[in-house]
Amino acid sequence: MGMRSPIASEIVAPFPITERNEIINGFGRGSSELGIPTANIPVTERLAKLEPGIYFGYCRLSPSQKPQEIKLRQDGQQVLFNQGNLLADEDLQVWPMVMSIGYNPFYSNKEKTAEIHVVHEFSHDFYGANITYVVLGYIRPELDYTTKQALIEDINLDIKLALEALNSAGYRNASNWSEEL
Ligand code: RBF
Ligand code: MG
Question: What is the C-alpha to C-alpha distance for residues 68 and 80, in angstroms, rounded to an integer?
Fold first, then answer.
């Protein structure tokens, strides 16, 4: 990949953006194809206003009261929505996240999607759980790639740069925001 613009050294408008939503079905590609699972969320009005790209911040999951159910994914695959009720206490802490908003040019999606990769290894999947997230900054535009491996490597670099930014002086106070999560 080419040159990256640096991440802003502090939180700038329109951030922070804090919202709560429920985790929906994606395309089922994140974990199976890329080895990088993402929690898909509805594209809210505030997320729709952001330019397509990669963002970062913090998030927290909470189980939903809804009974477990089976939902059909777009490709016809059945997905068990356990509503986050299998998650362990540790899984329910505040974790850093990277978020992709847009059309996934590598896959040429027709619809705008929003998905969150939580930087934590979960004990179980959590379709249907609630997620509260705070978006604190922008990382880069969405890109097309010649290989899947190049996309995976770039996502891993996003994660590394996001964690560095969150630990830098301009964002460390963001733990205040994360306490609202
Ligand atoms: N998809 C792209 O087509 N181009 C990208 O530049 C891109 N960057 C991403 C960065 C992050 C941090 C994440 C979590 C996802 C990104 N994706 C990108 C989306 C990826 O294609 C998607 O998660 C999988 O296809 C599963 O839906
Ligand atoms: Mg996903």
Answer: 7
143 lines ligand 1 (CB under 6 A): yes
- pLDDT digit string, tens, across residues 11-31: 999 999 999 999 999 988 888
What does 6-71 look like in DSSP terms, one character per residue? Answer: PPPSS--TT--EEEEEE-B---S-IIIIIS---EEE---HHHHHSPSEEEEEEEEEE--SSPPEEE
- The pTM for the full model equals 0.96
- Rounded CA-CA distance 100/89 in Å is 26
Of 34, 112, 151, which is best to mutate to test ligand 1, by the most ligand atoms within 8 angstroms of its C-beta?
Answer: 151
100: Cβ contacts below 8 Å, ≥ 6 apart? 38, 53, 54, 55, 113, 114, 115, 117, 142
pLDDT for res 1: 55
